[in-house]
């Protein structure tokens, strides 16, 4: 690249650069000693030829940017194709080179190589250290990170495996859509010799095993990142370039590998991630709206290199011989598709007049502001649990610092003794905080739209009816918008849509794929169980509850949490209820966020009522309020006059209805509160609902699905004195289960088998929801059975 072009590129810092098609190379390895040579694969110029096995007269041709046959040396591959790509990192660009192919095709040989035939990794690092640019007065610093993705978990290869959590490191994405791995080690290296030593040791940490097809088969995807950063004093900027060298694990046909159980599990993870890689390529080529990067860790990491902001090169490794025909055919077809992927390379330049290269963001997330980086640095230095700090030295005493693959918020690290101490709390980007901002964003979006509309109306000289006299108005009155029926209608629709977005969890969690949600949940459960084993119950509970956020319909998890709390006598503010249960009971899926929000509002209200017992104010539950059938008047009439248990005195929040999305009825978060003196006090939580929607007719109770109620714990026939853990067995809670009319749910009650559950269902269907458990006596339930229902099952 000419200096002029380089300057031009630098100016484009912060924006997507010019489009670069991903380069695809093909390399065929020589026949191994035990293989019988044949002519099944041939290469000429930039074309690979294979004979079609189905039709031997036909030759299939695949063209690539470059082809390397069995006689090609490691040196020629590096010099001809890899070195020119690596040169780009001196312009502040990122480059990714990854090897793809079936097991035993020569990927590890190409990337890692051997002592006699060093591969791309040692050659690249050597090249960087000997490059004349590195020897100029501009001071370059080089950092290395190396990690593997083994069975969908990320492990740092620069630290001993024993010191790592079995669930590995997480992958995160920042607000600028940069992927990073928090707490990954980045080590500064000052010479090739130092790197060689480090890399040699790290390779030993990699998961390899012997399979029938490869004696030293990689069981993981390995990613080595070399990062250089330098200070351009004349321009007051710091630049950073990175090269990622990736040795993907090879796809395997398990009928041929004859893998055992352990190898099969690895193979399953490898094949799955490669399958997702295929889907990503397919989606990119078809211009699909959703690219399934998130469906596997490997594709997530490759996100910037496949259709992202990194320059990309794929080396397709194939094994010669008829026996690999199917694999070769599939690999070549996949490679051909990948050629169409275009990346938009971006220069990583950081303007900072006062900073030196050692402070500035060689490893920071591209696009993150200085303040943010500074804050993170301070956080890390003050966070006593910071793993990176703990791991400041590796086994051999080398100083390390945390790094991320692609983007990384932890600036360089000299984890120094004289680091400035700050009081600031770690600012981890969590889902919860994102969800909070999501809600805030929604509100501000609506506000902005309304503001715009008002301005538009004013510019058209529109005067709202019924407003203050001309000349006295200080702007549009509060109801100015609603005066125009058309606008009012549109706003109502908009608000309804936003409300339904919240309702359908189109928040941050929705950005995660089901697989990712599942994996997150699994990781939390795993960690929770570990902590539980160690006796750290409270911490374990946090993880279990976190897991429920990702899999809100996993009932067993809720039950497990309950059991655990019960076992350890832990009383908490609320008892989570699985969304699936709510769904089964007839409501549309509601978000945890929404429920939490409603619960919080209602709880606040309860808290202000001094007449309520403390236990009644402890939290909220969702119960069902079956509005399907008519009230059980018949039963009630017959029970009239008989002595029934005393009325509940606890507060009951009723009618917190989560409406069906189909009919898009209003979200009427109205609630009634039964006070101890019997008079229901109406509490409206309907601020999220447009007035017009609230005023619309309520759905016909006969046709509508059962609605839901929020009910405060303690609102029981026992006068609300039960501890929170026992509240689920309060009369109201049991009634809610009964009134759901779902036999399976009813069978969770103590003493209820299939037959009784069916009886109850029939009864509820015919007579409508029960108001008291005693009503069950009408269908022949003895008092002892009814009492049992209140016991914990
Ligand atoms: N270009 C080459 N020249 C000489 N030997 C090669 C070449 N490519 C591969 N080999 C040899 O082939 C064997 C298998 O190669 P390698 O382990 O690199 O395969 P792989 O694709 O990484 O397999 P896996 O995915 O199972 O790890 C090794 O013994 C390696 O030395």
From TrEMBL:
ATP binds at residues 101-108. Gene3D superfamilies: AF1531-like domain, Kinesin motor domain, Tetratricopeptide repeat domain. CDD domains: KISc. Residues 375-409 have a biased composition (Basic and acidic residues). GO terms for biological process: microtubule-based movement; mitotic spindle organization; spindle elongation. Pfam families: Kinesin (PF00225). One of its GO terms (cellular component) is microtubule associated complex. Belongs to the TRAFAC class myosin-kinesin ATPase superfamily. Kinesin family. Residues 21-341 form the Kinesin motor domain. InterPro entries: Kinesin-like_fam (IPR027640), Kinesin_motor_CS (IPR019821), Kinesin_motor_dom (IPR001752), Kinesin_motor_dom_sf (IPR036961), P-loop_NTPase (IPR027417), RuvA_2-like (IPR010994), TPR-like_helical_dom_sf (IPR011990), TPR_rpt (IPR019734). Residues 462-476 have a biased composition (Polar residues). This is Kinesin-like protein. GO terms for molecular function: ATP binding; microtubule binding; microtubule motor activity. SMART domains: KISc, TPR. Residues 631-640 have a biased composition (Basic residues).
